[in-house]
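User: Hello, can you help with two protein structures?

Assistant: Certainly.
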Amino acid sequence: MGSIMSSFTSSMANLMCDGSPRKLIAGCWYAIMIASLILILLAFWMTSTRSLRESFLAAWAALLVTLLSIGGTMVMRKYHNSMAVGFFLGAIVAMAQLFFVLSFIYSGYASDRSMMDLPSAQEGFNALLCLIESILLGTFSAILVAHRSKILTSPADESVVSGDVDESYERI
């Protein structure tokens, strides 16, 4: 399964990003960030126009996606060790599952509101956006798992980046 995913994502990188898996990972992350921004803006609107339950759900999802965006950008830009990337992958998979469940919750809200003859377009749009976010996060995690060696730095690279000098070379 791993080699199939790796070959599939490599062909995606060849097709869309001139063969660079790092560009594919970055492009997918930017798509997630755009969808997250739309979700955050929609959450601000929902908190002012909907019930307490829907407002809390939207605000909580917005808070979590904001934290994921900040933490994910830090991992993608600065912290390239295996612990940070592994934690990031776990958070991405958890958020993908959360947004998948949220898409069903929002579609339930939309059907309830339509049965009560209330406008339900916002909940339907939010359900669709949560489903798209879930698919984007799941795809991103699969791509990151297949090409995590392109993100991770080796211990030798970490010592050069951090400025640590091996003491045995100072005597020469």
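That covers the first. Now for the second protein you mentioned:
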Amino acid sequence: MRLSTSSSFIIIASLIGLLAVMITGCWDMRDVDRSLFVGSIGVDANDVPGEYNITFSFPVARMVAGGQEAGGGGGKEVKPVMVQSTIASSITEAATNMALRLNRDIFFDHMRIVVIGEEAARQGLDQIIDPFFRQAEFNRRARIAIAEGEAKKVLEIQPWVEVLKADYLETILINQTLSSKFFSIELGDFMHNIH
């Protein structure tokens, strides 16, 4: 029995389609266990010109999800948010430093807050916000704020009403009607307004 030309075409097209779906199934997969998702970034001035003290706030997934108890047998309490700092000339350089130090890939898709310290803001914002213009990986819906004092101190707060610091800070900035102490704007709008 011989297949007709149209039947052969349908079978071959189906096989090619099936192969295409199977081959491309996980091309963009991220191993969550090997990733750190930045919740917030703090940028402070440094004594060395052109360098910044850059602080990252990362949620610890197993603690936020309730997968492990705090302490874990080591006697040391594990907090739901890890705050780490490094010295670098840009946020992208700081992310590279942090990825090497923590042996994890750093992702900014879930970044919600960018806090710039008062002294760093006085020195100028161009170098600080330049990576946000150049790289699409940064979440442009994140809120931006200038801290009175150091940005790192803002990221080190311990809110009792929220598990994640980024949630707490974002809620404060979104609900600006509760306080007249700050002006809230999304990073994308801020970038559009200054250029």
